[in-house]
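Q: Convert this sequence to structure tokens.
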Amino acid sequence: MMRTWLLPLLFVGCGSLVAAVRAVDGSVGAGVAVWLVFALLAVVCSPLVFPRPVGAVEARERGAVDGRPVVYWRAGCKYCLRLRFRLGRDARRLHWVDIWRDPAGAAAVRAVNGGAETVPTVVVAGRPYVNPDPRWVRAQL
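A:
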């Protein structure tokens, strides 16, 4: 759980430090602006921008029932962010598994990627695809 929030906390901490230095120098407005930029980066790199994750077992069961793809991801991954933002509202229709929160999800990703935790890994109809094009994923919906 802590690993998921490490990068966002680092952004907030660094932003707070830089903002405090700016404020002490008498540039409060610049300090607030810098802090807001770091806070935005923290939100973008956090799990908050992704739909609520489910466990790997539950995602596989749901995917088998409704035929929707399962996406294995982790917070802070730029490729996962790209997929999430390019899918837009359609992202809510997928089953998202955070491999840093779910050991079974991490094991599933390692099993199909030769031991590496390469994400995003999208499973469609039981077949894994590593870092697929977001347009292709949308077409699978």
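The radius of gyration is 18 Å.
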